[in-house]
Write a structure and sequence with these properties.
Structural class: alpha/beta
Number of helices: 14
Radius of gyration: 22 Å
Order of helices and strands: HEEEHHEHEHEHEHEHEEHHHHEHEEEH
Number of domains: 2
Length: about 400
């Protein structure tokens, strides 16, 4: 006998199958790739060993045994879970130690941790601005920044990517109509490998009485003095009002943090909904993050190596006639393809040759902007870089 609940589920599934069919026709269906084991830049997948040029493990710490040992020791001491939100009963000494070490690493008054970079952005932006306020956002901002801006219910003006002149015109036209204003941007853009023009943005913020908000997930640990990120790389350390970093890239674990003034972090502890209403991350995860930060501080050669590898691979690809976007030493190397079907096919061919490379399609990038996204790590060897360059030349030329 068919029940009403069965009918409803069938109707839902019919609609979703039709939507999936459209995505499939457009080569936009995504599937999960199983990675069983990671050792430096090498990963074991269901199809065998491959060199990973698709992860964000920039300093090569994701498989470092010292992080796993720190996690295991904390799990043995504190258990598997935090048991609640940090404002209820989930606050653990490991969380507090981690925030202290983050603040020391970036040389800030205080830091506050979140379960993910996405949670940080969708919690912090709505805590700072609302209906009576205005946001000026870069056109290529990360999805979490876009969603955070939407959730804030502030008026949002989008300026062309990295175009300070266009931003200035928007500020001149609209800033005076609102209570608060905030300029929101990535520090390093994850699909393009370039950097926001922070000196220009800071100057405009001061001129038009606006706050600056920088998601520096792809730069903290790699760029700037002692790996302090994009503001530091521009000589603007301490000049940004709100800066977001992540543990899931350079530091090899997961989770995120915001840093700035003690007042900012105390306010967000009370008002950022994704912090207030989320179970705290396991103490073992916090301990692993601490280990990642400590290693990044004590082994600066990792920063030098990832940037050196990026320059080397970029030079090799240029010699072979492959067009690469981004900054000259950017550790993210996008190769524009354009056609979605061809991008997917190249990604599959590279995987068959033992290289994992991101085949990025809409909506992650604009329509017509499909590309290969190569990320370089301190764990990559010169031989692996050369092998990838040669494989890319063969496959892209087909």
């Amino acid at each position: 006998m068919t029940t009403p609940s069965t009918l409803n589920r069938s109707a839902l599934d019919d609609v979703l199958r039709a939507e999936l069919s459209i995505l499939r026709e457009q080569n936009l269906v995504r599937t999960l790739r199983s990675v069983r084991r990671r050792a430096g830049a090498m990963v074991e997948t269901t199809h065998g060993l491959a060199v990973d040029f698709s992860s964000n493990d920039y300093l090569g710490l994701a498989s470092d045994r010292r992080l796993a040992d720190a996690s295991a020791a904390a799990a043995n001491e504190h258990g598997a879970g935090a048991g609640g939100s940090r404002l209820i009963s989930g606050n653990n000494p490991e969380h507090e130690r981690l925030e202290g070490e983050v603040a020391a690493f970036v040389d800030a008054e205080r830091a506050l941790t979140f379960s993910s970079g996405y949670a940080a952005n969708v919690g912090i932006i709505p805590a700072l601005v609302s209906r009576d306020d205005v946001i000026f956002a870069d056109a290529l901002n990360h999805a979490s920044l876009i969603d955070g801006c939407r959730l804030s219910r502030a008026v949002v003006h989008v300026y062309p990517h990295a175009d300070a002149a266009a931003l200035e015109a928007l500020l001149a036209s609209h800033r005076g109509q609102f209570r608060r204003a905030m300029i929101v941007t990535d520090g390093v853009f994850s699909m393009d490998g370039d950097r926001a023009p922070l000196p220009d943005l800071v100057g405009l913020a001061r001129r038009f009485d606006a706050w600056t908000y920088v998601d520096d997930a792809h730069a903290v640990g790699v760029l700037g003095d002692q790996g302090r990120g994009t503001p530091s790389a521009f000589g603007l350390h301490g000049a940004i009002d709100v800066t977001i970093g992540t543990f899931g890239k350079s530091f090899g674990v997961s989770g995120a943090f915001v840093y700035g003034s003690a007042t900012l972090c105390q306010f967000l502890l009370n008002r950022a909904r994704s912090f207030v209403f989320s179970t705290a991350v396991p103490p073992a995860q916090a301990a692993a993050c601490r280990a990642g930060i400590r290693i990044a501080s004590e082994e600066p050669w990792r920063r030098d190596l990832v940037l050196g590898n990026a320059r080397l691979l970029r030079a090799q690809l240029a010699t072979l006639g492959v067009n690469v976007l981004g900054e000259p030493d950017a550790h993210i190397l996008p190769i524009p393809v354009g056609d979605t079907e061809r991008t997917v096919a190249i990604g599959r061919e590279l995987a068959a040759n033992g290289f994992l490379v991101g085949a990025v399609r809409p909506p992650t990038v604009p329509d017509g902007g499909s590309r290969l996204r190569i990320t370089v790590s301190a764990a990559h060897t010169r031989e692996q870089l050369s092998d990838l360059a040669n494989a890319l030349t063969r496959v892209v030329a087909q």
